[in-house]
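User: I'm preparing a small set of examples for a lab meeting where we compare how different chains pack in three dimensions. I only have the primary sequence for this one, and I'd like the structure in token form so I can line it up with the others. Please keep the answer compact; I'll paste it straight into my notes.
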Amino acid sequence: MTTVLYARVSTSEQTLDHQRTQAEAAGFKIDEVVADDGVSGITTRLAHRPQGRRLWDMLRKGDTLVVRWVDRLGRNYEDVSDTIREFMRRGVIIRTVINGLAFDGATTDPMQQAVRDSLIAFMSALSQAQAEANKEAQIAGITHAKANVLNYLGRKPSFTREQLQTVRDMLEREAGTSAIATATGLSRQAVLRIKADPVAAEEMLARWEAAETARKRA
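Assistant: Understood. Below is the structure token output for the 218-residue chain.
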């Protein structure tokens, strides 16, 4: 009978060594470790993960599958529930590091089965709620980051690279503001702002050009 630790390494805090140390500290003697690195548990079923697929082939009746928490076993309520029940049908015992939960299909007492099944449903629902909360937090973080980028970039330039160069060239020839505005199609105010601080105008345009390039590459 083999005890296998399945780990999903998705953040810097959830390293493989850290998860194994936690499991061993909880009293588990790990025979083998199977880990997926950089795979989203929110969008990818266990059976569709590169290493998650191995579990279905390697685990046999009487083996124990150890996971940090049941959310490692699926992407939502239905997925987690189905995975736990399928492993139990195969005679695999599932144990969690957090709270020391155990899901054993060998239980025959009706009351114990009812408690076990209720616990599976509750834990699966809790895992989905946590996943959805994490997803919302990620969306909020992206939105916040975008807002910070816009704050850093400042106001979008009203002129292009070509217009800026034309303004600078005409200023060197001591052309008047109205003439420059007519030649470039810019407002007098825009020309005056460039004239007052051409270096700042260049820096602002360069920031927006770099941001636009990064956006296209993303």
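A couple of notes for your slides: The chain has eight helices and five strands. Strands lie at 3-9, 32-37, 64-67, 93-96, 102-103.

User: Perfect, thanks.
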